[in-house]
TrEMBL record:
EC number(s) per entry: 2.3.1.191
GO biological process assignments: lipid A biosynthetic process
This protein's UniProt keywords: Acyltransferase, Lipid A biosynthesis, Lipid biosynthesis, Lipid metabolism, Repeat, Transferase
Function, in words: Catalyzes the N-acylation of UDP-3-O-acylglucosamine using 3-hydroxyacyl-ACP as the acyl donor. Is involved in the biosynthesis of lipid A, a phosphorylated glycolipid that anchors the lipopolysaccharide to the outer membrane of the cell.
Gene3D superfamilies (UniProt xref): 1.20.5.170, Hexapeptide repeat proteins (2.160.10.10), MurE/MurF, N-terminal domain (3.40.1390.10)
Gene Ontology cellular-component annotations: membrane
Pathway terms, separated by semicolons: Bacterial outer membrane biogenesis; LPS lipid A biosynthesis
Protein name listed in UniProt: UDP-3-O-acylglucosamine N-acyltransferase
Active site: H242 (proton acceptor)
Reactions accelerated catalytically: a UDP-3-O-[(3R)-3-hydroxyacyl]-alpha-D-glucosamine + a (3R)-hydroxyacyl-[ACP] = a UDP-2-N,3-O-bis[(3R)-3-hydroxyacyl]-alpha-D-glucosamine + holo-[ACP] + H(+)
Pfam families in UniProt: Hexapep, LpxD
The keyword Repeat appears for this protein: yes
Amino acid sequence: MMASYSLQELATEVGATLRGSADKTIKSIAPLERAKADQLTFISNVKFRALLAESQAGALIVSEEDVPFCRAESNLLIVRDPYVAYALIAQYMDNSPKSAVGIAESAVISKHATLGERVSIGANAVIEDGVELADDVVIGANCFVGKNTKIGKGTHLWANVSVYHDVQIGENCLIQSGAVIGSDGFGYANDRGRWIKIPQTGSVIIGNHVEIGACTCIDRGALDATVIEDNVIIDNLCQIAHNVHIGTGTAVAGGVIMAGSLTVGRYCLIGGASVINGHMEICDKVTITGMGMVMRPITEPGVYSSGIPLQTNKEWRKTAALTLDIDKMNKRLKALERNLKQ
């Protein structure tokens, strides 16, 4: 049976000012244009204000500036930031199942592992020697947690996550299915054409409140640790190479590749499919737009872009032809400048 929530309950949860019926019950959240009488909706962009007066939602999450655009009879939760309030209410109403409840009979747990209170471990999971799982940790089905790894309170691993040995994961983290934490960094020496593998003896250290997307790989350090600080969010299918250090509050969108020994500052935003060179530093509060190719250090906060926006094939062929001729054009321009000076 679907749970229901009173508007007063939801208003209290997010500290909203309630206008309308405190007893009105809400069962779910829906988009602004499709929400029905038992649903809650929100507005996150002023360009959608015209829809407020037409909405059939049971209640609207709005800012003070949005109120004049709503019908007088609408139930409103008035907040400073409707999008943040929506996120908090969505968390409060979330009824997604856990990846494991209790300890499955088929789980293989070393007698030398330490489990806290209320730990759940799913079917066929493997927990090796020396592992420490703090209170309320959830390990999904088919997960592997390697020797001497430590996982903090309230952290949740979905199914099929592999965490290698000697990894440290903080509290209240969320790791989606297929992620690999602590795999070998890409370290090799070349002996006259023959690749010689360099053992990766560092670790991975992940802070608190970190989220890691499905099928993302975070390599262990060669000697020191790969470090992901608190409150970092990393999307699906990302590659974080050995000895990368990502600062607090940074967000990394899907498909990003970070080469080894890169340092990314705090509160950065890395757009999807970006590729970032290693052995350099990106300062705090940098935004790299999608498909950015970062070859040099970034020392000033701001927005940085590269990559060519999509064109028709005909336009792109002209652009490519001009690009190939840039060197010739540059030489001709310099020759003209010399002639003008003479």
